[in-house]
Predict the 3D structure of the following.
Amino acid sequence: MKNFLVLGGDLRQLYLAEKLKKNGANTEVYFYTNSDFSLKNAIENSDIIICPVPFTKDKENIFSAQNLDDLNIEDFLSYINSRHTVFGGIIPQNIKSELQKMNVMYFDFMDMEEVSIKNAVATAEGTIAEAIRLSTKNLHNSKCLVFGYGRCGKVIAQKFKALDAHITVAGRNDKKLATAFSLGLETVNIKDVEGIISEFDLIINTVPELIIKKDFIDLMKKDVVIIDISSTPGGVDFKYCKSLGINANLCLGLPGKFSPEASADILFHAVISCL
């Protein structure tokens, strides 16, 4: 029987470990501070190592919501070998390259289409929760601009539309914008956003690049709410927003925050399907 090691992360990791145990897997979990824990020993005693989503936030340590101080990536790489199988989400390319050099089999959850699509649902629901929490207005009848129409942008736009918000999708890809239009959404090319950005109560960014800059921010409503779900450091000039008193928020890890159990179930089935 294979031995599992679940490292760091957020509540998704705890639910995932619980699911593995219920299904009879020998599973060790390192989530809370434990003075008796040894990363080296734990890896030596494991076959399958499940790292979090995201794998890292600072590029030096495996991500841990509890800020565990002994999950250094260099140490991690020095302890594993070709008999291990590694799972994680958004694994940096340099880490993937190192794993390949060592002939370590690895799977990136976010490279799995079925995981990404299902994860987008949890992300969209989390975005709705954040929008309700951060705004003083109803979503019903509000005007919402969504930057990007990839997996997350598509589901976010549809979920907000279902709550009777007026949705406009901003993007560069004409084919994706045509798809959004066919589903009853307003669309605009990003190069033309300046002319309408002052109309919106809520702006959601899903594009992992700096896209909401000073020229856009200067034209926004002063009471606009901005929610950025893209990868760190986000796609918004947060410093400039703060200087103007604009409510801009980088909201990461929404599945782990709002639906950790359902998200863990997605990861569990992904792990099982790969083994």
